[in-house]
Amino acid sequence: MFFPPIPLIRKHHIIKKLSEHGAFAPDSAVTFSDAGIINPDGFRGVTKKLLRSGELVSCLDGRYYIGK
Fold first, then answer.
1. Cβ–Cβ contacts within 10 Å for residue 50, how many?
2. Which residues make beta-bridge pairs with 65?
3. Which residues pair with 56 in a beta bridge?
4. pLDDT of residue 49
């Protein structure tokens, strides 16, 4: 049985969209909605994993930027 790699696809989508918007530091951080991320409230497990690994950094106001 084949399961599509949805978490990996989601990770790449988030990183790509934040990169396109130049979100590499706290002053350039954007919300998922502003970055154009599809279904910004979906796949919270992927977002949490990216935050734990440091690949994604969260500002206190709901904005994110790329950490590593």
1. 22
2. 57
3. 66
4. 94
CB burial class (10 A; 0-12, 13-18, 19+) of residue 26? Answer: exposed
Note whether 31 and 40 are within 8 A (CB).
Answer: yes
Cα-flanking dihedrals φ and ψ of residue 43, to 5°? Answer: 55, 50
Could you give the CA distance from residue 66 to residue 68 in angstroms, rounded to a whole number? 6
Q: How far apart are CA 31 and CA 5, in angstroms?
A: 24
- C-alpha span between 67 and 54 (Å, rounded): 6
pLDDT (tens digit per residue) in 18-29:
999 999 999 999
Which pair of tokens denotes residue 28?
């350039």
Taking the C-alpha atoms of residue 37 and residue 8, their distance in angstroms, rounded to an integer, is 15
pTM greater than 0.90 (yes/no): no
